[in-house]
Amino acid sequence: MSLPLKAEENIQAENKKLTRQEIKIFSLSAIGGSLEFYDFVVYIYFASIMSNLFFQTNSPVTGLILSYSVFASGYFARLLGGIVFSHFGDKKGRKNSFALTVFLMALPTFIIGCLPTYSQIGIFAPILLVLCRFIQGLAIGGEIPCSLTFIYEHAQKSNRGLSCGALFCGVTFGTFLGSFVGFILTKFMHEESLNSWGWRIPFLIGGVLGLIAVYLRGFLNETPVFKKMKNEVVKIPLKEVFQSHKLTIIQTTTGLWVVAVAVSLFLLYLPNYLKTYYFFQSEDILRINSIAVLLYSILTLCFGIVCDKIGPKKVLNFSCILFILFSYPVFLNFSQNNFLSIYLCYLLASIATSAATASSMYLLIQSFPAKIRYSGASFSYNLAFAIFGGLTPLIVTSLIEKTGSTISPAYFIIFVSIIALLFSLFKPYKQYD
């Protein structure tokens, strides 16, 4: 039965302590998500190098745009992957998708680490790179919504915010690993060695980590919710999503837009932005970025707990307001070339992004009934990330090129935040067990 969240009152039952089973499931899901997401995002931290090695262009900005286009291809594949994996996840079980998505992530990651460059095989180099990113996108499109569904359905009602926060604490820690590996390689390798062969190391590591994630998933059991609803399985889950939950798709997607743009802009795109337009050293920026991503990971867990206390809608509204207020000053501050101001900017971005992440994921997964939960959550999540997450680096780089203003990215995140805030304020979210 669906209940609108009026003023977010009484959204949780009495508080119950975490059970040993919950701790095991939360931990293994978070670790698996961390390893898989490392595989997906590590590419962006080496985008500058990849653009030089896989694309033939004399302009560094044009090379970046081409490299970000490859990044976007992985995001667009997420929508297709989400549709396929969620269909079987709603019909055959949540657990069955886990191992396959991780394997499909690990294999192309390892292959990217072995790919010959443009100078070696010409046009086939970028083609193979796009193909690998596309397969990665298929995998991640099924992984995140499945993990959300899996962990939400295992959690007690009073711990569902914590469950979402724990999962994305792990997922964002994978982003931290990517940033940290980039920092370590940049600091301890000569630039010539890094451009020649060192860039391959993080992808090869990612392939191995992916196999570890496959092993970890073997310890998880099917969700009790799916076991109970086996007789209610829908023939074509996505069809019912479109027929009965159109407004829910729109509303949940707007909240996820904020997360998609914020993560892509502040935590993935920013190192290359600061290096390209303000000429900061990669080592310095990746160090700051690594600290910010680690903080984001921890704060996501904290805001998940806050969602259990005051409700996810209030937390989402807080994050949107924060983005609207600070985004312009943040990008204006970058021109000062002051490291202290950059630390402050990253701090604000981490707080707002973590609040948006924990709350929007909670609101997403509770907004669809169990029989179509994976399909509904998957479509909304991947639609938001395919359009806004994947295109954000490309959009803001193009905006800067067209306007000549390096502050342009601020207008984009402000625009998206205003839309999400309006939908949150004027339409109640649904809640399903």
Feature tags:
0% strand; mainly alpha; 433 residues; globular; Sugar_transporter_CS; H+-coupled_symporters; disordered N terminus
Protein architecture, described:
The chain is mainly α and 433 residues long. It contains 17 helices and no strands. Mean pLDDT is 84; it is low at 1-14.
In short:
The chain is mainly α.
Instruction: Please provide the ordered H/E string of secondary-structure elements.
Output: HHHHHHHHHHHHHHHHH
List the uncertain runs.
Answer: 1-14
> How many angstroms separate the termini?
8 Å
Output the CATH homologous superfamily.
MFS general substrate transporter like domains
Total helices: the number is 17
Integer tally of domains? 1
- From the helix content, strand content and strand pairing, which structural class follows? mainly alpha
CATH class: Mainly Alpha
Shape: globular
Helical amount: over 70%
If classified by CATH, what would the architecture be?
Answer: Up-down Bundle
Largest sheet: none
The overall pLDDT, averaged over residues, is 84
Spell out the blueprint of helices and strands:
Layout: H1 20-45, H2 47-54, H3 60-92, H4 95-112, H5 118-121, H6 124-154, H7 160-188, H8 191-196, H9 201-217, H10 224-228, H11 237-244, H12 246-278, H13 282-310, H14 312-333, H15 339-366, H16 373-403, H17 408-426
Helix pairs in contact: 1-4, 1-6, 1-7, 1-9, 2-3, 3-4, 3-6, 3-16, 4-6, 4-9, 6-7, 6-15, 6-16, 7-13, 7-15, 12-13, 12-15, 12-16, 12-17, 13-14, 13-15, 14-15, 14-17
InterPro entries: H+-coupled_symporters (IPR051084), MFS (IPR011701), MFS_dom (IPR020846), MFS_sugar_transport-like (IPR005828), MFS_trans_sf (IPR036259), Sugar_transporter_CS (IPR005829)
Subcellular location: Cell membrane
Organism: Silvanigrella paludirubra
